[in-house]
Specification:
- Helices cover 0% and strands 39% of the residues.
- By secondary structure, the chain is mainly beta.
- The radius of gyration is 12 Å and the shape is globular.
- It is built from no helices and four strands.
- It has one domain.
- The chain has a four-stranded antiparallel β-sheet, with no helix packed on it.
- Strand 2 and strand 3 form a beta hairpin.
């Protein structure tokens, strides 16, 4: 499941799917032939300076 608050999706030339999920504040990367995503949680991505 990708999530309920997906706001963007990108597929690269290697067929990896990148999904931005606001609900978990993360980016999920689904590589071709994998059943589980790599999850990246950038810290303070929306923090103001």
């Amino acid at each position: 499941m990708i999530g309920l608050s997906t706001i963007g999706m990108f597929i690269d030339t290697n067929n990896a799917i990148y999904v931005n999920d606001q609900e978990t504040n993360s980016v999920q990367i689904w590589y071709e032939r994998k059943t589980e995503p790599m999850i990246i949680k950038p810290e303070n991505l929306n923090a103001s300076k």
